[in-house]
C-alpha cells in the first residue's frame, strides 16, 4: 500500500529530525530522502511553500548520499535541518 503524501511528509520529517538529533545518518537514509522529496515535489496536494523547502532537502540528500564524510555533512547542516522541519510543519 503506497504512503499518502502526509505519511511521506511525516517520514521525511522523522529522518531529518534523526539527522539533527543524532548528528549522524546513513547513505540509505539520504537515498530515502531523495525518493521522498522527488515524490512530494510532483504531488499537487503539497503546499507550494513546502515544495521550495523540498528542493533544499533534495540537494542535501543528494550531497549526503555522495559524500565521503556523511556525519560531517549532517553536522554542517544542523541549522538547516531544524529550520526545514519547522517550516514544513508551518506549511503542512
Automatic annotation (TrEMBL):
Organism domain of life: Bacteria
Pfam families given in the database record: YtzH (PF14165)
Protein's name in the database: YtzH-like protein
Amino acid at each position: 500500500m503506497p504512503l499518502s503524501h502526509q505519511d511521506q511528509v511525516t517520514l521525511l520529517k522523522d529522518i531529518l529530525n534523526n539527522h539533527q538529533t543524532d548528528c549522524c545518518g546513513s547513505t540509505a537514509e539520504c537515498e530515502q530522502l531523495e525518493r521522498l522529496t522527488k515524490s512530494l515535489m510532483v504531488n499537487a496536494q503539497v503546499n507550494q511553500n513546502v515544495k521550495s523547502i523540498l528542493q533544499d532537502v533534495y540537494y542535501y540528500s543528494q550531497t549526503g548520499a555522495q559524500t565521503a564524510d556523511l556525519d560531517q555533512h549532517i553536522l554542517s547542516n544542523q541549522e538547516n535541518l531544524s529550520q526545514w522541519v519547522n517550516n514544513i510543519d508551518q506549511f503542512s
